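Lab notebook, bench 4. Still working through the backlog of constructs that have no structural model yet. Next entry is a single chain of 155 residues. Request: give me the C-alpha cells for it.
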Amino acid sequence: MIDAPLWTILPFIGVVFLASMTGAIFRPGQWYDELRKPSWTPPGFVFPLVWGVLYVAMAYSAWRIWDLEGFHPALAVWGLQLALNALWSAVFFGMRKPALALAEVALLWLAVAANLYVFAQIDAIAGWLLAPYLVWVTIAATLNLQIVRLNGKAA
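Model written out:
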C-alpha cells in the first residue's frame, strides 16, 4: 500500500524521463536502417511504445521502494541500471558501435536482473514490475548480438 502522496512520484518520473532522452537524442536513422537485421526484428514503431510502458513501470517500482524504505541502497541499483539503459543508445546509435553496445547491454541485463531481485526482496510488486523490462532487455540484447553477427566489421 502506497502511503506517499501521488505527487511524490514526480522525481522518479523525471529521472526516468532524463534517462529516456538518450533514445530521443541518439536515433536509429539511415545508418541503422541499412544494417542487416534478423527477420524477427520488431517494426520501428514498437520500440517507443514498449519503452514508454517500461519507463513508467521503472518509475513506479522505484517509487514503491522509496515509499516503503526511503532512500534504500536498492535504489542505487535502480540508478545504475537506468544509467546503463541511457548509455546503450549513446553507444549503439550515437557512436555506431554495436559490438561495444553488446558488451554494454550484457552489463545492463545483469543490472536489471539485480534490480528486480533487490526490489522483490523489499516489495514483490516493485520487483515483478521490472520483469517485462528484463524480458525486453533480453530481446534487445539478442537483437544486438544478431546485428553484430550479420554485419561483421560493418557494424
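Notes after review: The chain has a mean pLDDT of 95. The helical segments are 10-25, 29-34, 46-69, 74-94, 98-122, 124-128, 131-151. Flag for follow-up if needed.
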